[in-house]
Amino acid sequence: MWNTIVVSPMINALLFIYGLLGENFGLAIILFTLLVRLATHPLMSRQLKSSAALQDLQQSKKWQDMQKKFKDDKEKLAQEQMKLYQEAGVNPLGSCLPTLIQFPIIIGLYQAVIAALAASPVQLLNFSESLYKLSPDNPLYNIFPNPGSIIPINSQFLWMDLGQPERLMIPGIPFGISLLAVLVVITSFLQTRLMTPASPGGDANAQAQAMTKMMGLYFPLFIGYLTWTYAAGLGLYFVASNLFTIGQYAAMGRLDLKNILPQRKETANNSANKSAKNSTKKSTNKSTNKNGLKVTKTSGGQKSKSKSKK
Amino acid sequence: MAFGPHVYALQKNNGSLVWKYPAEADRAINFYAEPVISPNGDIIAGDYKNVLHSINPADGTLNWTFEKSQESANRFVASPLVTENRVYAPSANGKLYVLDSSGEQIGEPYEAGTPLWATPILANDAVVFPTLDHDLVALDVKDNREVWSFNVGGAVVDNVVFDGGMIYLGTFNNQLMAYPEGSTSPTWSFATSDWVWSAPIVTPDVIYTADAKGMVYAINRENGTKLWEFEADSAILSTPLLREDVLYFGTELGSAYAITIEGVQKWNLSLGGNLYTSPVDVGENIVFTSMDNATANVTAYSPEGTIVWSFGTDN
Q1: In this structure, what DSSP letter does residue A309 have?
Q2: Which residues of A touch B195 (CB under 8 A)?
Q3: Cβ separation A148–B173 shorter than 8 A
Q4: Residue B54 belongs to a domain with what CATH number?
Q5: What backbone phi and psi angles, to 5 degrees, belong to B165?
Q6: Which of A240, B134, B169, B243 could be A33's S-S partner, Cβ–Cβ 3.0 to 4.6 Å?
Q7: Residue where a domain stops, chosen among B90, B119, B148
Q8: Rg of the Cα atoms in chain B
Q9: Digitized pLDDT (tens) for each residue of chain A, 310 residues in all
Q10: In what order do the strands lie in the sheet with B87-90?
Q11: Would the CB atoms of B32 and A120 count as touching at under 8 Å?
């Protein structure tokens, strides 16, 4: 069932694109990734709206007050949280669905890539049984010709063999470096940072912030490890997917470049201190130094002096 | 026969084990290609680590191994062509290695640049072999230089047949083709229903071939027209055996068939497993080998389809 519904369609789609793109399997994977991203775009839009609504709710005064009121009663807190979610029409799991949908795509695509790059007769036989083969008298035959005419698949793309874990041999270094894994980690990290909205301040959100931070660090490393271990075709998908996702977010106006850099922790106490400092600054803007000269500080911090009239 | 970590020698009249090589299983060794018997009687088998083994037929001891092919991680999928003083070993790493009868490499291997899954053949003064990437190549036997090569339109995964100045081959492009020696244009081509995985059987007037849809065809050798067709239950991935006007073949779903050269079924037996290899003529009987993941069952049948003996390989 899995092969029929997921893997076989992916294999045939990849092959079709491969044939269209001059038998370039790397470009076929990239274009396939773009098509998948476009197909899941409505879900992503919904995810964004859900995330934004969730964030607005969690930044609202009502939410903050509720957190403070029930911080010692976990059960009551959970109840009130659900109540607020319902009132606001927000589904806290709504942002997870597009992520969950990615997993069968990733697994199916990996299996499709490995099947297409069959290295033995038995693998090729299994691969051939996933192919849609039309008879020559079928009107669609010209669009979907016999896949046997394009076997074997050319697995070379740039410096990579897409059916093998990617390694780049650099002179002077005795072992291969996985440049692709590095690209995957970087693009995943960027995607996570650029698209994760800043969490609101407050001790109640400290745990959530910590979790988000961990995910933002460990998830890129995890899929970097997958890229290191498995066929390069999978890593190529990850890079393409990350870049396309960043592009989608940018097109929707949701990209926040400031998120790339580490943010200073903005707690309630910090905010209060900031306000206090600002008001102190204002009250000392005008003073008289020991020589009796009035010292006035401008907004740029420059001092000017004037004689005080006696 | 070769399966898993061993090459087996069996008595052909009763299937009893004579020897197996290596005597103790070595997990580093895994055989896929059919062993071949050289003119001096030695058995030569290539393994999945890209090593060739020459085995003494009397007791299954090792004569020599050729390991230079391990320069690239790959495997021997096809059997070598063994002549009086040469071994032509095609590897899935895209190289054709030429050895002498003691296993020493002669010159540099020919680099086809694409996996070689078929056994070469001799066609007059040339060694001819197909590549997975749609080419048919001929090398001069004297110096191993390329004489000609051209595209046949589809992948070829079994050996071609040279007979009467013609080269016959089946491709993944659903074609059986007949090329005059030295010509890049086929005299005729016959459209099958699916990929052709096996070599054709060539007789003076008729050519027999099979495809992945389970179709067996008898084709007029002169002009490539269909004489008859027979449909089996599933893909036929190996060359049928023609013996005394009867075609014997196995299918992917584990059925063994015997059909006459007029295309009439004599018998059909369900053996279980998968029948990926050609039946073998062992004198009075015909041997079929069915495989599952872990074992191979070698069974000898009489021409009437009754079991004579059976042997199971190590698990």
Answers
A1: P
A2: 128, 148
A3: yes
A4: 2.40.128.630
A5: 80, 5
A6: A240
A7: B119
A8: 19
A9: 888 889 999 999 999 999 889 889 999 999 998 998 888 888 777 777 777 777 777 777 887 888 788 778 888 888 887 887 777 777 666 656 666 777 888 888 888 888 888 888 888 998 998 998 877 777 777 677 678 888 889 888 998 888 888 988 888 888 888 999 999 999 998 888 876 665 555 444 556 666 667 777 888 899 999 999 988 988 999 999 899 888 888 887 776 676 666 655 544 444 444 444 444 444 445 555 555 555 554 444 444 444 444 3
A10: B81-82, B87-90, B95-99, B110-111
A11: yes
CA–CA distance from A117 to each of A128, A150, A155, B42 (Å)?
A: 11, 12, 7, 35
**A154 near A217, Cβ under 8 Å?**
no
The domain in which residue B113 lies consists of: 1-119
| Short-list B281, B274, B283, CA closest to B258 | B281
Q: What CA–CA distances, in Å, run from B271 to B7, B235, B274, B286?
A: 22, 15, 8, 14
Q: Is residue B2 part of a domain?
A: yes
Examine the fold and report which residue of B119, B139, B167 is the final residue of a domain before the chain moves on.
Answer: B119
- In tens, the pLDDT along B195-212 reads 999 999 999 999 999 999
Which of A 132-151 lie inside 8 A of B, CB atoms?
133, 135-136, 146, 148-149, 151
ipTM for the predicted complex: 0.88
- Residues of chain A neighbouring B132 (CB-CB closer than 8 A): 151-152
Task: Tell me how far apart the alpha carbons of residues B222 and B232 are, in angstroms, rounded to a whole number.
Answer: 26
Q: Token digits for A304?
A: 């000017």
Report CA-CA distances (Å) from A192 to A195, A247, A259, B243: 6, 13, 9, 68
The answer to the question of residue B145 being in a domain is: no
Number of CB atoms found within 10 A of residue A102's CB: 14
Nearest by CB to residue A151, choosing from B75, B92, B172, is: B172
B94 vs A contacts (CB less than 8 Å): none
Where are any strands of DSSP class E within A131-257? 156-157, 160-161
B291 interfaces chain A, CB cutoff of 8 Å: no
Rounded distance between C-alpha atoms, residue A70 and residue A77, angstroms: 5
- The structure's pTM equals 0.80
Q: Is B23 exposed, middle or buried (0-12, 13-18, 19+ CB in 10 A)?
A: exposed
Q: Which residues contact B268 (CB under 8 A, 6 or more apart)?
A: B255, B256, B257, B258
Is the distance from CB of B249 to CB of B279 less than 8 angstroms? Answer: yes
User: Would you state the structure tokens that stand for residue A97, as one six-digit string?
Assistant: 């669905």
Q: Report how far residue A155's alpha carbon sits from residue A148's, in angstroms, rounded to the nearest whole number.
A: 16
Cα–Cα–Cα angle for B21, B25, B27, rounded to 5 degrees:
125
Distance from CA of A85 to the nearest CA of B (A): 54
- Rg, C-alpha atoms of chain A: 29
A305: which strand partners?
A: A295
CA separation for the pair A218, A195 (Å, rounded): 16
User: Which two tokens mark B232?
Assistant: 């089996």
**Domain membership flag for residue B137:** no
**Number of domains into which chain B is organized:** 2
